Amino acid sequence: MLNESEYFEKAAATRVRVLSEALPYIQQFVGRKIVVKYGGAAMKDAALKEKVIRDVVFMSCVGLRPVLVHGGGPEINSWLDKLGIEPQFKNGLRVTDAATMDVVEMVLVGRVNKEIVSLINQAGGSAVGLCGKDASLITARPADEEGIGFVGEVTNVNIQILDSLVKAGHIPVVSSVAADETGQAYNINADTVAGELAAALGAEKLILLTDTAGILRDYKDVATLIPRLDIHEARQLIDEGIVSGGMIPKVNCCVRSLAQGVRAAHIIDGRLPHALLLEIFTDAGIGSMLVASEFMGNR
């Protein structure tokens, strides 16, 4: 058993090794935009939430330019319940009638967004909260699916406001509510918003925080994690049924962003403490990294 001085000596050596391993990644990504989709357990668990916030602030402090996009499904459901509105889903999409849309906008834009902004600012960052309506950041249109109400798709992204904010050292926090050209509000899938923003910004990375280890060959076995794949391999996994269910739209979101110029897309387990730092700043990473071509560089 280590005595106290040996323990602290070992812990200090570990910290030095970690920082040393992170250095080339910090140098490589300084000034680059990293779009993070924040959702799942990492939004619900207070301890995980604190670590995600600290990771984002760390990224900003070492010269990366993070942009955070968030959902807020559980909190929306909680408020719908309080207001006596029954949540309804069709093909995995929330059916968003006018009353539900009011709640979605209130919760995502007013409550969840401002809580994240406040936490980042308390941790020493400088966050600014936005939704798709602000400075016409995102223009929406109705989704193709019938019978789901005010669920939208992205038709246009105007990144001027985001560019101005990140160049000034701020951390934009974007909720996935946007309006069409008539001003009608729409609820848009937050993964989709993150992917479209990453593409429009020419981001270095798109990172999706999820409640799974990444892309698995056998969804029951974490040991079958696929650490790295290209667009062709990702599409093949969908065709073969290895990627299925809720993972399909996430992989398609990554593929679409890569096809539009994002250098790498990552699907990682947001339930792991400091998942963002482990994925970006270590040699092995912790999740699945997708790239446009097998010939593209390492993590």
UniProtKB/TrEMBL annotation:
Alphabetical list of Gene3D superfamilies matching this protein: Acetylglutamate kinase-like
Subcellular location: Cytoplasm
InterPro entries reported for this sequence: AceGlu_kinase-like_sf, AcgluKinase_fam, ArgB, Asp/Glu/Uridylate_kinase, Glu/AcGlu_kinase, NAGK-C
Chain positions of site Transition state stabilizer: K37, K250
GO biological process, one term: L-arginine biosynthetic process via ornithine
Keyword hit for ATP-binding: yes
Enzyme class: transferase
Alphabetical list of SUPFAM superfamilies matching this protein: Carbamate kinase-like
Residues reported to bind substrate: G72, G73, R94, N187
Reaction equation(s) it catalyzes: N-acetyl-L-glutamate + ATP = N-acetyl-L-glutamyl 5-phosphate + ADP
A GO CC term assigned to this protein in UniProt: cytoplasm
Function in brief: Catalyzes the ATP-dependent phosphorylation of N-acetyl-L-glutamate.
Protein name per its UniProtKB record: Acetylglutamate kinase
Taxonomic source organism: Phormidesmis priestleyi ULC007
Taxon lineage: Bacteria, Bacillati, Cyanobacteriota, Cyanophyceae, Leptolyngbyales
